[in-house]
Amino acid sequence: MELIDIIIPINYSKTDLKNIMNITDTLAAVLEEDVPLIQSILDFLHLYYLGFITVLGLLGHGANVLAFKITKRKLSSPSYYLTALSLVDFVFLVTIFILWLTHFDVEVFFQPGIYQALFYLSSTSSCISGIYILHIPC
Q: What is the pTM of this model?
């Protein structure tokens, strides 16, 4: 007894199911042919888009810290909150930037001790950032 004999829905015949199986096999073959193209597009986006967003975020959060500490509103409560949020996000983006540098054979991330420190910093800063964002309504 074949597997197709066991899994026959009420509305489908064996020939309908075999046709469906042939269609899915053909679709899988077509998708396997397009994998290198899709993979190259994703690699390109990961290489350039992630770097661009990271550098832009570092510049933006650095400007936020300077703006909140230099202006006359530096003593206000929201200024402290937004400065802390920008600093935490800045630390997270630095860890992402160091990881992104591995695309250019800068193997800083995988050095003993540095990997653990950067993993700790990225996990902690993303957690603290989430906590700060949840405290906005309070």
A: 0.68
